[in-house]
Amino acid sequence: RFLLMTGYTGFFGVRDDNGQLPRSHWSSVQPTAEAALVLQLTRAFSFRTKATFNSSTNDTKDNAFSDLGANLDNLFAAYTADNYALYGGKMDLGFGDAWHVVDGLYSGFNENSEFRGSIGVGGRYTLDTAGRGAHSVAVILFKRDNTAMNRRFSLDGGLLGPDEPPLFSDQLKSFVVSYDFRDLPGLPGVSGGVDAGRLHLDPDQGKSANTVSARLSYATPLGNAWHLSWFNEVTYSSAFRGAPVANGNGVTSVSLSRDRWQVTATAAARKLTGGSQTLARHGLQDGTDWGVSGAVTYVTPLGLIVQAGLTHQRDQALRINQGVFRIAYQAGF
User: Fold this and answer.
1) Spatial distance between the Cα atoms of 117 and 79, rounded to a whole number of angstroms
2) pLDDT, tens digit (0-9, with 9 covering 90-100), for 210-228
3) Are strands 304-315 and 288-299 parallel, antiparallel or unpaired?
């Protein structure tokens, strides 16, 4: 399966209270290509991989088709039976679901909850009982990828290591335990779950984080061929990017879809706690960070996906406004 996309992002009204940004507006036009392959060796056993070609630029000035390169995102083995699954290798992992299931342009303050391309091993067991819904439990043990698979192939510089390695240990000491439910009697369209676990940091990286996340979703058909989907998630963590600062965040996202159209609205908030002196010592601010986003998506009869939307986010000292327009095409074989 592959995805080809070109996106325009216009940054405007950008303000940094610390005066670190030289300008308040710029634009970025960058391509993205993703390819995912499943090698099905038997009915249950497979190898799965995904690679991405994109831009790694962080320029705060006009840019287009710059800093292009490719990353190997996933490469793992999976054994999937009727009611259980086992997997191991380089995978996208994290606490909660918002970082990978929210539609639209924005999924909230979950950069401290997603660990894409980590190396781990785990499994899931699902109990699907007639009249009592489906319940599943999953456990995964993971670590930072410090192998050659974490290198980026740049069109300008060849094989490059990450600018800043992910802030967690390369020892197999981080873990997530998950519970999910769906199809409960008397609650049609309702699903949800809870994650709990620990992100282990080495002593020189800062404080390890204990995290718990809870989610609840609702999906239902409406009148006149419309369909509603509503996702909610809250997360609490005992540390923030290695700093001994507790933090909580939440996100809610509503999508309305009909035929080839989808409209999505998302709102998120985050609160850091730990006392003003502790926050200041780690370069953080008190107060509530928040963001809102809206997007409209249309799938043409030819299969092209067209999306446009606006996002505003207050993230500590930074205020960011973005206008986004994307054209994409995805297919499989």
Assistant:
1) 19
2) 999 999 999 999 989 999 9
3) antiparallel
